[in-house]
Give the backbone structure.
Amino acid sequence: MRLLITAGPTREHIDPVRFLSNCSTGKMGFAIAEAALAAGHEVELVAGPVALTPPASAHYTPVISARDMLAAVMEYLPTVDAVIMTAAVADWRPAEVAQDKLKKHTMEPVIKLVPNPDILSEIKKVKTNQFIVGFAAETRNALEYAKDKLERKGLDMIVANDVSQPGAGFAVDTNIVSFVTQQGIEHFPLMSKREVGAKIISYIESKLS
Ligand code: C5P
């Protein structure tokens, strides 16, 4: 299979030195990329700014903003069998990006935001038969939100995790996930992100074989 995996945060600039972003480190997406490569698949890895070294055998596209990530995803989408969107895409970006560094004494204390494109919703509009996996990181009611998201974003699977649980979510090497599909929900215990990656890859293999 050829897989498109997105990872990390996006960075939405306010001026050349300031930005809005989130806590994603890219660990989950990179772990899935490693699991996919170990299983003999080809990987397009598209990641926002992260401090990780991409696996040598992945084709790597570093991006900054949500709109950069959307462009890269749209470029690779027709060439892949499945998409795994682990990236924590910023929902909003500043309406304007200053060309020069803003000065504290002249800067407005309010930043006007505009919504970013929802990459999964854009994929839904143009996809053919790719298997699409979304992530749902929530701090409460993770499963309830995941079921809603599965339908709203037209996904084949949501990997839901409650990022408020110890050992789950951002910046750690483990995660506690549930797979939500039209067929039901499968819960998993605490696992390394690499093991979560292997489970996701074998699930997709079973559906696409
Ligand atoms: O609705 P929510 O943002 O929580 O959904 C998370 C899922 O949607 C993740 O798979 C994330 O990569 C994706 N997403 C996206 N475009 C956005 C925001 C999130 O594709 N602008």
The mean pLDDT is 94. Residues 23 and 170 are 6 Å apart (CA to CA). The first strand starts at residue 2 and ends at 7.
